[in-house]
Write the structure tokens for this entry.
Amino acid sequence: MSEFDYDLFVIGAGSGGVRAARTAAAMGARVAIAEDRYLGGTCVNVGCVPKKLYSYAAHFHDAFEDAGGFGWQLPAPPSFDWATLRDNKSSEIKRLNEIYARLLDGAGVRLINGRARVLDAHRVEVAGETIRAMKILVAVGGWPWVPEFPGSEHALTSNEIFDLEHFPKRFLVLGGGYIAVEFASIFNGLGSDTQLVYRGDLFLRGFDNEVREFTRDEMTKKGVRLHFETNIESIERVDDAFRVTLTGGEVVEVDAVLAATGRRPNLAGLGLDALGIDLKADGSVKVNERFETSVPSILALGDITGGPELTPVALAEAMQMAQAHFGEQAPAPLDYARIATAVFCHPNIGTVGLSEEAARERHGAIRVYRTDFRPMKHTLSGSEERCLMKLIVDGASDVVVGAHMVGEEAGEVIQGIAIAVRAGLTKADFDATVGIHPTGAEEFVTLRTPTRR
């Protein structure tokens, strides 16, 4: 009989943890998983799934306005009911939680409800039970972080924003990353008077600069008020509202403040510090290509390891981990260089590969192909929304090293383009591809003249 109760014990039943547990179990491993909050983790419960549902809801605002140019006459101005969206979202999340439970059960994975604590290299304690495992995987994800300032306790995080009792007519977002720009767009689209405050000169640091500037202009046209090189000095509660003082001296009164100021590894209480597991300077867990920490039997993946904080990355890492430790042959290393991503602001951003700035630094000689235009839909809708498309090409090899889009369904379009970039296709390959007409996406295969080099 084995000296271990399980071959793999997973802490955290989010996207990465559940995929790791199911994949390892399918390879013959005995697996248990512990979760102290909700199945599916951040993505399913307070992240990408509800965010996308709320983004869909916000897009109807534009759709109602656009419909008039196509002959649709609404009998009365449309009105928005927050409770309907919120409660329908909750019902859908409950359905997904149940699916995750069934997936684990069907894979033969034991689910334990509780916050697990690592006792040593092979033992964990959870729900009053001590369990021995050959390998322990930590996949607990991140947790919202709010900077301290007078009144910071009044700021909401992305954990609470989906379930507000009342819809905020006046809304302020602090931050400049994915979550900040997405929620600024969402609440603006749902009807809030929305402002975004960010300490830097432009949001979405790390993205292509032209994409950032174009998004700034489009969000401004839609009515989001942007305050750059600004921060919050204090928040004061005044009756049912909040008085927010900004660093420039401006005072604004709003109904809700969202602090979208980053997430940090959710490691508190896990016991990793007592084991001396090595951490990086940013507090994330240091792992090797096999997802092993400095204690080899303790593994880690997903957001806590300091890589791209994206659900598909955690899923890919989970499959890599399972193959490395329970599969028949070692997998090829995961390619982090060409991972596509989307930002569901309005309009959407889709991007894969290198920004123009990074491409110049890495390749020197490059060619940039770009276009921005008013989509065909808006020739009748009357909307002034524009779309940006951009390809970055290595001048020496002709390989397309980056593709970027700001516009309707950018994520859907870039998902297909990402395959081409991942495969190392050349600009000549793009040129030889016959486009689908009339679509916006065909612009990616009809760009012929470099905008700049």
